[in-house]
Automatic annotation (TrEMBL):
Name of the protein in its database record: DUF2157 domain-containing protein
Cell membrane keyword on record: no
Alphabetic keyword roster: Membrane, Transmembrane, Transmembrane helix
TM helices/strands, residue ranges: 59-77, 83-102, 111-134, 146-164, 171-192, 198-217, 233-253, 259-277, 282-299, 311-331
Keyword Repeat: no
Endpoints of the signal sequence: none
Domain of life where this protein originates: Bacteria
């Protein structure tokens, strides 16, 4: 900003008039205030903002959808249980109803929360259609695998059509889940179920695949301004529990609860570092339950009642979440310091104040 002394000198030299100098000062002050307001707005912007709802109207409509489908399921429970109606027909009708409602609430009204809900209902219903088409046979050990594969095929095909029509970001998560279910089912059939002996490794690979898909969309929108960030958010929510559960369940030993608790905390802290690097708090949600149990294991030798142990564990867990949430940007600056200047940072969100 031009100093007042410089303007006074310009007035004395006859370059501008005193009235023009006063107007210029007012204009420059206004520009500086606008820049400060813009910077403040950028700092307040949540880089992990997800479009769940635009208001209570979305919630009210979602409540109506849940009530409607609850009545649908309860009303058809008796015909289904008595064999008077095939499950595939019931699920198919539910899928048609979901699609029809999406034509109004998603395509025309563009309501976020109802769209998310209808995507889940449609995906579950269409998967159930495929699952129900093949009757499980106790004498055939592959029958359940075939059911799962058919359900995955229907979920994959149905979700792909749903995404083509409505472009709801969460639909990509259903598609990825369908791909993973189909691949795992095919491997189970090809190996006569021997692959299930290594199931934690299978789920770990699936989780890493979902994480890679999430990072693909994150890298396309490092500023977190387009729908790519919503797509990545839901994929991270799918990837996180698969990765965390695969690692910790593989290391679980019932006889070494304290050691397992310490290992769990170490794994969760490492997971937290990754979450800070990619700037995704959603990744830590899956780890919170494990952290709570780990704290409970460590506190178990103390002379606390079960109720007190639960309360203390929850207080510690809540404090951890609040501290990390409040100091997220500061913690991220520390974690990102060794990566400064590397090519990796071009695929990651910028560090915010």
């Amino acid at each position: 900003m031009i100093s007042r002394a410089a303007l006074t000198g310009a007035v004395s030299a006859g370059i501008i008039s005193a009235d023009q100098a006063d107007k210029l000062v007012s204009y420059l002050k206004l520009q500086a205030e606008n820049i400060q307001a813009q910077q403040a707005a950028e700092n307040l912007h949540d880089p992990e903002e997800v479009r769940f709802t635009r208001g209570f109207h979305d919630i009210f409509i979602s409540l109506g959808i849940l009530i409607l489908f609850s009545g649908y399921i309860i009303g058809l429970n008796e015909p289904l249980s008595q064999g008077g109606m095939p499950a595939a027909a019931v699920a198919g009708a539910a899928a048609i109803i979901s699609w029809a409602m999406a034509e109004w609430f998603t395509k025309i009204k563009k309501l976020a929360l109802p769209s998310i809900l209808l995507t889940g209902l449609f995906g579950g219903a269409i998967a159930m259609v495929g699952f129900s088409l093949f009757t499980s046979n106790p004498l055939n050990q592959n029958s359940e695998t075939i059911q799962i594969m058919l359900g995955s095929i229907f979920a994959l095909a149905g979700a792909s059509l749903f995404y083509w029509r409505f472009k709801v970001p969460i639909t990509l998560t259903v598609i990825v889940a369908g791909v993973m279910g189909l691949i795992v089912g095919a491997l189970t059939l090809a190996t006569d179920a021997r692959i299930l002996d290594y199931f934690p490794w299978v789920t770990l690979v699936c989780g890493l695949f979902a994480f890679a898909c999430a990072m693909y969309f994150d890298s396309k929108d490092t500023a977190r301004e387009t729908l790519n960030t919503d797509k990545a958010f839901w994929l991270h929510l799918l990837a996180a529990p698969l990765i965390v559960h695969s690692i910790l369940s593989r290391m679980y030993t019932a006889e070494q609860t304290e050691a397992y608790a310490l290992v769990s905390i170490a794994v969760i802290l490492a997971f937290g570092v990754v979450a800070l690097i990619v700037d995704r708090r959603a990744m830590l949600v899956a780890a919170l339950s494990y952290l709570g149990f780990a704290l409970g294991y460590l506190l178990e030798p103390a002379d606390f009642s079960e109720l007190q142990l639960t309360a203390i564990s929850l207080v510690l867990l809540g404090s951890f979440v609040l501290l990390l949430g409040s100091g997220w940007n500061a913690a991220r600056r520390i974690v990102m310091r060794p990566l400064a200047g590397t090519k990796l940072t071009t695929y990651l969100p910028p560090i915010r104040n």
